Amino acid sequence: MFKVNIFLAAGLAVLLGGCASAPTDIDAEASAAAQAALNAMQGGESAALPSALNAPNGEPAWISSPYNVYDKNAYVAAVGSGGNRAAAERGAFAALTAVFGQSVEAEFSNLTNYSEAIHNGSIAVSENNAVREAVKTSSAMDSLIGAEITGVWQNSADKYWYAVAVLDKKKASSLYSELIRGNIRLIDEITTIPDTESNSLEAFSRYQLAATIAGANELYGNLLSVIAGGTPAAANLPQIRNSAYYHLEAAKIARGIPIAVKVTGDMQNRIGNAFAVSLGRIGFKSGGNNNRYILSAEVSLTDANLSGNQFQFCRYNVDAYLIDTANGGRLAPYNISGREGHTAMSEAELRAVNAAVKKIDAEYENVFDNFFSSNLLRQ
């Protein structure tokens, strides 16, 4: 697999396949929001927010309502609790996300591939250290970018912990606006594909990754509509295409790419058929000769008998990956293994194959999709 580092976030040069655009400065308020969030997530204090330190006597005012401390017109805030400090902070971040409604919660929970793309280097965030680290840290903590834990308190009676998470509306609006702009520029770069590669897994990967980034923009846009009280268009942002558009384009590309399936050690071609069915559900044609792409798999069935046990056991192992014959690259590695037993070894082997087929049927489609949604291939 070949990766190319792509810089996203507002105003940053986007580098793709050696083509770069001129960098611009990240908005000062967006940078300040990122720095404040980073400081708070790393255990520091935020000078930008009202004090939410522990009250000298009794519980802090924000316990009963965070808006006893934070102006509702300027901040979004929520309180979480738990048996320890970490649980309380996670609860506060989750409660803050819930403030924005079920649609935002659903979009937030679907950012797995976006976070993976950041961490595996397919997407490398901005050269501005505060923004880069805030995005990475927030994804690792399952928290909204720009959100801060500004106060924690432990009840001395029951030792229960409480935390308050806060988002500064003005700074968050700047931060999300800039991230949307940067992501749109990034998507435009990713989906500019030479005609010679328009029917390739690289093109498929680019549109899948574009869909992943577009999904993040859907979240940022919905957050903006709540925080700023308007739509992204009202904030003078470019049009945000939804992730479904890019998934549809990826599906169109998939229909033009045949993938040969070659499996060694298969029993009655059952493993090969399972892979072919999964590829078909994704949208690819399977079979054929002289294809550029080959799904290569090796199946092994070995005795795994236990001493003193009357049952016969068979261990199965399946190693699979895609081969790009144009450059010898190996993509989307996949491995499964397990053990099945029966009174007769022949039946144990059959059960082992059945178990492998069942796993492939349940898992491979998602493994394939996740790989090409969070990795950018470069020839």
Task: Return the average pLDDT rounded to an integer.
Answer: 81
Structural category: alpha/beta
**What strand line-up does the widest sheet have?**
9-8-10-11-12
Report the strand count: 12
Q: List the domain count as a whole number.
A: 2
> So what's the overall shape?
flat
- Strand percentage lies at 15-25%
**Annotation field: number of helices:** 10
Share of helix, binned: 40-55%
Main β sheet profile: 5 strands, mixed
- Which residue ranges are poorly predicted, with pLDDT under 50 across at least 5 consecutive positions? 1-26, 44-48
C-alpha termini separation: 9 Å
Pattern of helices and strands = EEEHEHHHEHEEHHHEHEEEEH
As a whole number of angstroms, the C-alpha radius of gyration is 25 Å
Per-chain topology:
Elements (H helix, E strand, L loop, with lengths): L6 E2 L6 E2 L2 E2 L7 H14 L33 E8 L2 H15 L2 H8 L2 H8 L4 E2 L3 H12 L7 E7 L6 E8 H22 L10 H27 L15 H13 L2 E7 L5 H13 L2 E2 L6 E11 L8 E13 L4 E14 L2 H30 L5
Parallel strand pairs: 1-5, 8-9, 8-10
Antiparallel strand pairs: 2-3, 4-7, 6-7, 10-11, 11-12
Textual characterization of the structure:
- The chain is of the alpha/beta class and 379 residues long.
- The protein has 2 domains: 245 residues, no CATH class; 118 residues, Double Stranded RNA Binding Domain (2-Layer Sandwich), CATH 3.30.160.150.
- Helices cover 43% and strands 21% of the residues.
- The strands form 4 sheets. It has a 5-stranded mixed β-sheet, covered by helices on one side. Strands 4-7-6 form a 3-stranded antiparallel β-sheet.
- A hairpin with an 8-residue loop joins strand 10 and strand 11.
- Helix 7 packs antiparallel against helix 8.
- It is flat, with a radius of gyration of 25 Å.
- The N and C termini lie close together (9 Å).
